[in-house]
Amino acid sequence: MINIENLRLTIGGKEILHDVDMHLRPGDIYGLLGPNGAGKSSTIFALLGLRTRESGRVSVLGGDPADDAVAVRRSVGVMPEKAGFYDWMTAPDYLKWYSHFYDSESTDRDLGTMLGKVGLGKETQRPIGTYSRGMKQRLAVARALMPRPRLLILDEPTNGLDPKGRREIHDLLAEFVSDGKTGVLLCTHLLDDVDRLCNRIGIIDNGRTRLEGLIADLLAEQKIGQRYRLHLETEPDTDKLPAGIAVLGHEGGWWRVQVQVKPSEGISSLWGELLGRGWKISEIRSEASSLEELYMSHTGQDKPYSQEEVL
Question: SS3 for 306?
């Protein structure tokens, strides 16, 4: 759905992108990560045909945005980081007006269904100017979804949302790609969003792609295991552990472990082996630290934010 190879882009005489690659397939939720100023927005501008590249290959849904940007954009739903609205309009009127840019007609039922999906079903008659920041984020997501796009490009879609709102947007995006024919490019600083949603990532730093691929494969290749917190009913025997697991420490009934398994094997068999060795596990919690470690090792700069840091 997106194929970018060796992208170079110059703005105002300064080379912003030096060597960017991106490969997003149908069914992917792809997390585009990088420090502020790394080139993420410039990459998005190039794949939408809003910036003219110096060299490299850019293909979006089989077309080159440099040749026919309008055709590409008609099949793409976009949510920019700063989404402007006409404050005097209601959400249904705004979405109906916006859908005309895609030559599509939306019925009142379509509008009501979409606003209900993003959690605005009870706020349809209020002027947008009275909406909170989180409500406007929901409306921006609805706007990106209304044209029934094949590809979604979302910049910080869950900013300003409470945990319930974030989970609702997560579920909506997972549903969007569930048929395996659509894809999502997610540009975010929220590592929680990436950890819960994305199967592939690309890390950009100083205008270059530092790392790209399936998250499970990248963690395995970099020998960075996923970390978990296990709540145990009794103290376990740690003298002979299964291959691929290491105990990092414990406090009270919670034990922190790091797990390294091959992507093809999965992790359920490892939990089963621990249970078979007498580990009385009552709860398992995943930690995002492994993905953060992967990110930091390839940028050495700003780390993505966790949900707690945003709240």
Answer: coil
